[in-house]
Structure prediction request, 266 residues.
Amino acid sequence: MNENEADHQHSSPIKTPKQLVIVVVLAFIVPIALIVLVTQLVTGVPHPTGDDSAVRARIAPVGTIEVAAATAPKGTMTGEQVFASTCKTCHEAGIAGAHKVGDKAAWAKVIAQGEKVTVQHAIAGIRAMPPRGGNASLTDEEVQRGVVFMASKAGATWKEAPVAAAPAAMVATAAAAPAAAGPADGKKVFDGACAACHGAGIAGAPKFGDKAAWAPRVAQGAATLYTHAINGFQGKAGVMPPKGGAMNLSDAEIKAAVDTMIAAAK
Prediction:
């Protein structure tokens, strides 16, 4: 073997920089491609394309659940439900002198006066406590259940009035057919929820028609008064619980009541 033949056998097949780049790129691409092919063969998953409808169909839920809003038929709320919808606003935080739930010392005198008197006070209203807690839609039985629920947290052994089963047709109608929304009657809302405090000026509430008391409030603008009435407000002279304690009222109804009181003060 001569010198030229030896040099030829040991020379590299890569002669140019371009060939070197191609070899380097292939050294990366070929192993990766082989790994992808092996993975697809093992898992049986086809290479993804721009259309992911097959994947979406495979992971889609079998079904969906829709919960229809239902309104409890009148008179069927339990004591706990009455508390959550109406009494909680004041009695949970002790607003406007309301006895806090679970405060045995505060409830001791209430319990001592007996269930009958306590329920009568809750229905008719007493001091800063508006009639039916400001929720005029509550029946006497529902008010009684709410009172018993709170008193029981302080050690009372009173019994809630039994809840009569509502006819199935009534329950179905309440769940399937929401009430038609109409313009709110501000005067009606005021009489049912606001008059207890604003009628007599209880707990610092400006009296209905008192122009002097309402003047600085009217000056704040209706939008501010709406916010205070809906969300509640702690003032220097008193406190306004959210929605006057009547949490069943809509924002539109509260605004209508505010408009009625503003109009009476002008």
Remarks:
- The beta strands are 233-234, 239-240.
- The chain has three domains: 14-47, 79-175, 186-264.
- The two ends are 121 Å apart (CA to CA).
- The chain is about 55% helix and 0% strand.
